[in-house]
UniProtKB/TrEMBL annotation:
<feature type="repeat" description="WD">
    <location>
        <begin position="123"/>
        <end position="165"/>
    </location>
</feature>
<dbReference type="GO" id="GO:0007015">
    <property type="term" value="P:actin filament organization"/>
</dbReference>
<feature type="domain" description="DUF1899">
    <location>
        <begin position="3"/>
        <end position="61"/>
    </location>
</feature>
<dbReference type="GO" id="GO:0051015">
    <property type="term" value="F:actin filament binding"/>
</dbReference>
<dbReference type="Pfam" id="PF00400">
    <property type="entry name" value="WD40"/>
</dbReference>
<keyword id="KW-0677">Repeat</keyword>
<dbReference type="Pfam" id="PF08953">
    <property type="entry name" value="DUF1899"/>
</dbReference>
<dbReference type="InterPro" id="IPR036322">
    <property type="entry name" value="WD40_repeat_dom_sf"/>
</dbReference>
<feature type="region of interest" description="Disordered">
    <location>
        <begin position="379"/>
        <end position="455"/>
    </location>
</feature>
<dbReference type="InterPro" id="IPR015048">
    <property type="entry name" value="DUF1899"/>
</dbReference>
<dbReference type="InterPro" id="IPR019775">
    <property type="entry name" value="WD40_repeat_CS"/>
</dbReference>
<keyword id="KW-0853">WD repeat</keyword>
<dbReference type="Pfam" id="PF16300">
    <property type="entry name" value="WD40_4"/>
</dbReference>
<feature type="compositionally biased region" description="Low complexity">
    <location>
        <begin position="389"/>
        <end position="411"/>
    </location>
</feature>
<dbReference type="InterPro" id="IPR015943">
    <property type="entry name" value="WD40/YVTN_repeat-like_dom_sf"/>
</dbReference>
<feature type="repeat" description="WD">
    <location>
        <begin position="167"/>
        <end position="199"/>
    </location>
</feature>
<dbReference type="InterPro" id="IPR015505">
    <property type="entry name" value="Coronin"/>
</dbReference>
Length: 499
C-alpha cells in the first residue's frame, strides 16, 4: 500500500444535517411511480411533487400550484429567475409558474393563510405524459421536455404555441436528460439501454448513440464528461464516466447490489454525488484525470425518496459550504450541508471556482438562430461576472441507427447573507496545511550591509530549516495515512455491527 495520500482540497469534506427549523415536516410526497428526483430548488424556493389524492386538493402550509389534472412528474427552476418554475404532468401538459414574493408576506405567523398560484403559461406538449422538464443552462426561456411518445421537445417560452424542435430516435421511454454546461449538447438515457447525444439545432436525430449500462434504469449528469448511473447485467449498481465526443467508456465503478436507483449530481467543482433511492447515505467522489476518487459518505438512518442540490451561487461561503442537498424523506425535507473544514474565516478561493450566474448568455431567439456563447460565471467572493470556457461542440454527422397532483412551492426564510435554510456547522478538524518552502537568498538578493560570511550562515540555516520541514511533512503524511486507516477500520466495524 502506498504511504502517500492523494492530495485533494476536498478530501476532508463532510456532510452535516441542518437544524430542524431549516427543514420541512408533514409534507405529502407524491405517490407516482414515475422515476424523477421529486424535488427541485432555486436559491430562494423549493418545489415538491405533492400528493393531493384521497379527498381532493388538501390545504397546505404554503401556496400551492394546482392546475394539473394528473400527477406532477417533474419540476425545474429557471437558472436565471429564482421565482420561475416549470412543471411536467401526467396530463401531457407543462405549466410555467411565477412565484409572487408578496404571497409569502407574513408566512409562518399566526392567522396567515396561503393563497394558491395560477400558471402564467400552459403548454400542450403531448397527448401522453410529460416525464421531464429541464431549462437551458445559458439561454433564457428555453425549455426541454420529454414525452410519453419517446421524443424531446424544445420550447421558446415567449412563443409556447409550437415546439421549436423535436428530437427523436428513442426506442423506448426516456429516463433522463441533461444539458452540458454550455447548452450545445443535450444527452438522454432510455430504457433501450442507450445513451444519445443531440445537437438540438442540427436536426432531430442524435449525433451520437452509444451503449449504456446493462440494466434498463439509468440517470445522467453532464459536464466535460458524461456521468451516468445504472445497473449491470448482474444487477450491480454502477457509476460510469463517458467521453463526450465518441461516447466511449472512460471509467466504470461498481457501487453495490442494492436495487434503488442512484441519482447522480455533478457539481462544477468536479464532485459527483450519488444518492440512492431507498438509501440513507450519499456517496461522493472527486473526478480527476478520468478517475473517480471516493471522498467520504454521508450516512443517515432515514431513507431518501428524492433529492436536489442548491445552485452553487446560493451557498454560504463563510462556512466553507461547497454543496447543499435537500433530501426528501417519507414526510419531511432535510437540508444537508457539505463543508470543507478550514480554520480561516476568509474566502477560500481554492474550493470556490466561479459558479454559473443568474445572467443568461443568450436569448431564446439567439439560441434557436444558431448562436453559441460560453456561460456567464459569478465570483462567489465579490459577485463579479466573468465568461466561461468556449462551448463544446461535436461533429453533427447523424449516428446509426395523481388525481390533481399539484406542485408545491415552499419558501425558505431569507437570511442576510445566504439563502435559507442555512446550515452552518464546522465540527471536523481542519485538514493539515503545508507551509511554503523557505526562500534561500542568492547573492543578488543579499541584504545590504552583510558580508559573504553572513550570507553563507544564512544559507546553512535555510538548508537546516528545509530539512526539518521535509521531515515534518513526512510525519504529516504518515499521520494522514494512519487517520485513513482508522477511518477504514471504523467503517468496517460499523458494517459488521449493522450486519
Amino acid at each position: 500500500m502506498s504511504r502517500f495520500v492523494r492530495a485533494s482540497k476536498y478530501r476532508h469534506v463532510f456532510g452535516q444535517q441542518g437544524k430542524k427549523e431549516y427543514g420541512y415536516d408533514n409534507v405529502k410526497v407524491t405517490n407516482s411511480a414515475w422515476d424523477t428526483n421529486i424535488i427541485s430548488a432555486s436559491t430562494r424556493y423549493i418545489s415538491l411533487n405533492w400528493n393531493a389524492s384521497g379527498g381532493g386538493a388538501s390545504r397546505t402550509s404554503s401556496p400551492s400550484a394546482r392546475s394539473h389534472t394528473g400527477p406532477v412528474l417533474d419540476t425545474d427552476w429557471s437558472p436565471f429567475n429564482d421565482t420561475v418554475v416549470a412543471s411536467a404532468g401526467e396530463d401531457g401538459k407543462t405549466l410555467i409558474w411565477k412565484v409572487d414574493d408578496a404571497a409569502f408576506a407574513g408566512w409562518g405567523q399566526d392567522g396567515w393563510e396561503p393563497q394558491d398560484f395560477d400558471p402564467v403559461a400552459r403548454i400542450d406538449v403531448s397527448p401522453r405524459r410529460v416525464g421531464h422538464v429541464l431549462f437551458h443552462p445559458t439561454a433564457n426561456n428555453v425549455l426541454a421536455t420529454s414525452t410519453g411518445d419517446h421524443v424531446v421537445k424544445l420550447w421558446d417560452l415567449a412563443q409556447p404555441e409550437n415546439a421549436r424542435g423535436v428530437l427523436g430516435g428513442h426506442g423506448d421511454a426516456i429516463q433522463s436528460l441533461a444539458w452540458n454546461p454550455t447548452g450545445t449538447i443535450l444527452a438522454t438515457t432510455c430504457r433501450d439501454r442507450k445513451i444519445r447525444l443531440f445537437d438540438p439545432r442540427a436536426g432531430p436525430d442524435p449525433v451520437r448513440v452509444g451503449e449504456g449500462h446493462g440494466g434498463i434504469k439509468a440517470s445522467i449528469a453532464l459536464a466535460d464528461r458524461i456521468a451516468t448511473t445504472g445497473f449491470s447485467k448482474m444487477s450491480d449498481r454502477q457509476a460510469a464516466i463517458w467521453e463526450t465526443g465518441s461516447l466511449s467508456n472512460v471509467k466504470t465503478i461498481t457501487i453495490d447490489q442494492t436495487s434503488g436507483v442512484l441519482m447522480p449530481f455533478w457539481t462544477d467543482n468536479n464532485i459527483l454525488f450519488l444518492a440512492g433511492k431507498g438509501d440513507g447515505n450519499i456517496r461522493y467522489y472527486e473526478y480527476e484525470n478520468d478517475n473517480l476518487f471516493p471522498l467520504a459518505e454521508y450516512k443517515s438512518s432515514e431513507p431518501q425518496r428524492g433529492m436536489c442540490f442548491l445552485p452553487r451561487r446560493g451557498l454560504s461561503v463563510s462556512d466553507c459550504e461547497i454543496a447543499r442537498a435537500y433530501k426528501v424523506a417519507a414526510s419531511s425535507i432535510e437540508a444537508i450541508a457539505f463543508i470543507v473544514p478550514r480554520k480561516s474565516d476568509s474566502f477560500q478561493s481554492d474550493i470556490y471556482p466561479p459558479a454559473p450566474s443568474a445572467e443568461p448568455a443568450l436569448s431564446a431567439a439567439e439560441f434557436f438562430s444558431g448562436k453559441t456563447a460560453p456561460p456567464k460565471l459569478v465570483s462567489l467572493e465579490d459577485g463579479s461576472i466573468t465568461t466561461g470556457s468556449a462551448p463544446l461542440s461535436i461533429p453533427t454527422t447523424p449516428a446509426p441507427a395523481a388525481s390533481s397532483a399539484p406542485t408545491k412551492t415552499t419558501s425558505a426564510p431569507p437570511p442576510a447573507a445566504a439563502p435559507a435554510p442555512v446550515v452552518s456547522i464546522r465540527e471536523e478538524p481542519p485538514a493539515p496545511t503545508s507551509e511554503p518552502e523557505p526562500r534561500i537568498p542568492t547573492r543578488s538578493q543579499t541584504v545590504p550591509g552583510t558580508d559573504d560570511g553572513t550570507v553563507a550562515a544564512l544559507k546553512e540555516e535555510n538548508a537546516r530549516l528545509t530539512a526539518e520541514l521535509r521531515d515534518a511533512r513526512e510525519k504529516i503524511r504518515n499521520l494522514e495515512l494512519q487517520v485513513e486507516t482508522v477511518r477504514a477500520n471504523a467503517r468496517k466495524a460499523a458494517a459488521l455491527l449493522d450486519s
